[in-house]
Amino acid sequence: MENTVSNAEKYFGQFCDLMAAYTRKSAKLRDKSDLLVKQLIDYGNTENPELRTTVKDFAEELAKVQDYRQAEVERLEVKVVEPLKLYRVLIKQTRAEIKKFNKARNNEIKQLERLEKVRQKSPSDRQMIAQVESQVHKASVDASRTTQQLEETIDEFQKQKFKDIQKIFLDFVTIEMVFHAKALEVYSNAFQILESYDAVKDLEDFRAKIHMASGSFHESRPVAVASPSPATPWSTQVGHPFDN
């Protein structure tokens, strides 16, 4: 019986610690994802119209996933972690019953040993022997009653343990299935949003802005006027040697 309780104490304690850590990790992932959503929105506001709309819509889908993840965290805490924590109290109560049983059993053994000593030392002292026998009987009745109580307690403990281990992990799997099913649906929408993004429109818009900026720059530049070369007067030209 003690092994049964010790085994449950060991493994349910480990389950509790692990599931609590699992839940905290999910909560941290939600927090990081919330930061990602914020950064995506900030980035989208700096981009061209098509990309800005796409990033905003994509971020909204990611935010929906985090809402589902928040629900996942809360349900894990209530339906998985808390029930496992309760086993610490249940195990403590069961150990108290075992301690009571051991005390009653030891008292019975002690009274039996005392009776044996009295019979050996004073076999003719019927009054003393009768008193000790009465105490032995009382101790035996108490031990028998305590044994029955302990057996009932352990039986109930086992029945509850079998039921709880099934329910706790059924709830765990159900919570995870619901979250991932909803997340898959939202991620599918996010995928469609990203896939339908038309980068060509943004590129054309970008090129048009660059062209306009470049044209404005050239129009604003001053035009340099070239100075005319001085004309050479014909009267000063040297005649051709064959003209004479």
UniProtKB/TrEMBL annotation:
Keywords: Cell projection, Cilium biogenesis/degradation, Coiled coil, Cytoplasm, Cytoskeleton. GO terms for biological process: cilium assembly. InterPro entries: AH/BAR_dom_sf, BAR_CBAR1/2, CBAR/FAM92. Pfam families: FAM92. Gene3D superfamilies: Arfaptin homology (AH) domain/BAR domain. It comes from the Eukaryota. It is found in: Cell projection, Cilium; Cytoplasm, Cytoskeleton, Microtubule organizing center, Centrosome, Centriole. Residues 221-244 are annotated as: Disordered. Residues 91-160 form a coiled coil. Its main location: other. The keyword Acyltransferase does not apply. GO terms for cellular component: centriole; ciliary basal body; ciliary transition zone. Belongs to the CIBAR family. This is CBY1 interacting BAR domain containing 2. It comes from Salvator merianae.
